[in-house]
UniProtKB/TrEMBL annotation:
This is UBP-type zinc finger domain-containing protein. The lineage of its organism: Bacteria, Pseudomonadati, Pseudomonadota, Alphaproteobacteria, Sphingomonadales. GO terms for molecular function: zinc ion binding. SUPFAM superfamilies: RING/U-box (SSF57850). Coiled coil: none annotated. InterPro entries: Znf_RING/FYVE/PHD, Znf_UBP. Gene3D superfamilies: Zinc/RING finger domain, C3HC4 (zinc finger). Residues 3-101 form the UBP-type domain.
Length: 101
């Protein structure tokens, strides 16, 4: 674990991939909160959700930084360095996003 994030250069302005967790919407699953990949725009569910799709997306792709996205929360997290990161901007929500819990 680091005191600072070494992956800030991976943050992109992205278009959210779905109006909810992309995988949960496909499978009929549900989520607690949403996380937005700031490398590619994938929307996945948080680790409090049963399927933890945001973390699964990180493990599958190596994309390190997510944004709290439900509702837009303005914070970021680096999976690799395990630190909160200050994002240069906030991604507008492509809502309304349905709530499942």
């Amino acid at each position: 674990m680091s005191d600072e994030c070494r992956h800030m250069d991976t943050i992109n302005a992205v278009m959210p991939s779905a109006k909810g967790c992309e995988e949960c919407l496909k499978t009929g699953g549900w989520w607690v909160h949403l996380r937005l990949c700031r490398s590619c725009g994938h929307v996945g569910c948080c680790d409090d959700s049963p399927s933890r799709h945001a973390t699964a997306h990180f493990h599958a792709t190596g994309h390190p930084i997510i944004e709290g996205y439900d509702p837009p929360e303005g914070w970021g997290w680096c999976f690799v360095d395990e630190v909160v990161v200050e994002l240069p901007d906030q991604t507008p929500q492509q809502g309304p996003i349905p709530r499942y819990v």
